[in-house]
Input
Amino acid sequence: MNQFIPCGLVPRLAVTVVLVLVAARCGGGGPTTPPPPIPTLTIACPTAEPVQSTDNNPRVVTFGTAVATGGVGPLTTTCSAASGAEFPVGTTTVTCTAVDARGVSALCTFPVVVRPPPRLTGTRFLAFGDSITWGVDSPPIPAAAPSFAYPEQLQQRLAARYRLQTPQVINVGEPGEQAQDGGIRRFRSVLLQHRPDIVILMEGTNDLLSLEVGIERGIEALRDMIREAKGQNVRVLLSTIIPQRMNGFRVPNRNPFAVLVPPFNDRVRALAASENVPLVDMFQVFAADMSLLGIDDVHPTVRGFQVMADTFFEAIRANFEQQVAAGVGGLP
Output
């Protein structure tokens, strides 16, 4: 039974076991299983977050690694530019290539965007208002037109961002002024004198000394100022006035006037909407942190002026910044 039987000489009456042995020895079995197919070689590129150039010079950009799958290992992956390299202003296309052991390759591309420096649609700002604009801080250290007044700090922030331009913030705040009186009387002449592109208008705190009638007259004065500015092709950034502390440190307290600030600001918000000018809600900023008010219950602290400058800066970015689109191949 264990003897070798040449192919083709198996007796017809051979037992089944012999037939099976002969068939296996003579290659007469079923079809062989083919090798599994080789997965297609693919490569996935990373993404790069856009970065901003502040001075039109190249910027360092970092991104992840390209990931290759499939093919026959080992795989090698290379990119035309490395993460951490400097890229010029504009859009640069980075190509990544994967090669497997057979020499089969696959590629992918992704953009690296370096945005050109931002630009303002107007660079000459006029800060118009009362002592809060002028820069009177709250005791114990009151000062006249100090360097920490919000217009001076705002100019520093604008100069740091808009490096290819020369932003200027002119402080024409007038301590003790009411919008209905000195404000409206001097507004036109101040615009003609300084010829701003944009006026930052925040006034009305002293109008509330006239109680309810001050609300009406103050709002009417603000409306006339806005329309005067529009007539001179000057854009307006209108702000609510900051709160006054109820039951505060002053004797007598400012309660009769403090309660009028919210309804006055409601009218300011409505005025901004009706005149189609952007609004900065400085009231809400201070109401969220009353420590920004000093011990006189009405003027900002030094930190309060810093917050004012930051808030106006963000409003200017949102309303008066012209973002230049990045070009291709490093050209804006």
About this structure: The mean pLDDT is 88. The longest helix spans residues 212-231.
